[in-house]
Design goal:
The chain has 249 residues and is of the alpha/beta class. Helix content is 44%, strand content 11%. The protein has a seven-stranded parallel beta sheet with strand order 3-2-1-6-4-7-5. The chain has ten helices and seven strands. α1 links the parallel β1 and β2. The mean pLDDT is 90. The chain folds into two domains: 157 residues, Alpha/beta knot (3-Layer(aba) Sandwich); 61 residues, no CATH class.
């Protein structure tokens, strides 16, 4: 099943099945589902694509094949042509982050959006770029602008999904229940007592050093588990110092 509310990825005359599979994997990473293939060199379906899709076979299974670029974009209302080189055409040139905000209202209005990606060796032809509304390019090193086909698909997919998800992380920080202040203060007192007994503090500097150490521990907060861990470390060290033997690992 394809998603009409997302852009279509169109690979023009892809030469290697492996690259098609990796492009499908990049699409799946970022919630893109519809792939169109224009005259793939080695025919379709291609076992090499399945081998590199890393589980994104649903995209390959639903992919459609078209004889030429014009046929592949016939039902689309907004088309972008990707290229890393200046083509001398009187078209707008946008980055993926600029193109995505344009795509969303077009899709919301019931239109269809497509992004053209060219051949591995030579990219899109000028006549194919002429069929697009705008050129989509990437902020790459001008001394080495060439991108792998799947890399280009991934960069566009990343910007699309980032906008769709509002940049939300896939998972958050691990929950750390904060330690009650009495638990923290008790740990400080025990630690300071042990350090005092070990002769850690220089004369007349115990109060200042103890406050500084408390500040270090409290700078980012302490969880209950962290306090228990520090108490365990302290117990193990003082046990050894008092002749209790080496604690078991």
């Amino acid at each position: 099943m394809t998603d009409a509310a997302a852009p279509v990825i169109i690979l023009v005359e892809p030469q290697m099945g492996e690259n098609i599979g990796m492009a499908a994997r990049a699409m799946a990473n970022f919630g893109l589902t519809e792939m169109r293939l224009v005259a793939p060199r080695d025919g379709w379906p291609n076992p090499a694509a399945t081998a590199t899709a890393a589980g994104a076979t649903h995209i390959l299974d639903a992919a459609t094949v078209h004889p030429d670029t014009r046929a592949a974009i016939a039902d689309l209302t907004l088309v972008y042509a990707t290229t890393a080189r200046e083509r001398g055409q009187m078209k707008r040139v946008v980055l993926p982050a600029e193109a995505v905000p344009e795509m969303r209202p077009a899709l919301a209005a019931g239109g269809r959006v497509g992004i053209l990606f060219g051949r591995e060796r030579e990219g899109l032809w000028n006549d194919e770029i002429a069929l697009a509304d705008a050129i989509l390019t990437f902020p790459v090193n001008p001394a080495f602008p060439s991108l792998n086909l799947a890399q280009a698909v991934l960069l566009v997919g990343y910007e699309w999904f980032k906008a769709e998800s509002a940049g939300a992380l896939p998972f958050g920080d691990v929950e750390r229940p904060a330690a009650p202040r009495e638990m923290v203060v008790s740990f400080f007192e025990a630690l300071e007592a042990e350090l005092d007994a070990a002769g850690f503090y220089p004369p007349d500097k115990k109060a200042t050093m103890a406050r500084n150490m408390r500040d270090m521990f409290l700078r980012k907060g302490l969880s209950e588990q962290e306090v228990r861990t520090f108490r365990g470390v302290m117990t193990a060290l003082t046990k050894t110092r008092r002749g209790g033997g080496t604690p078991a690992a």
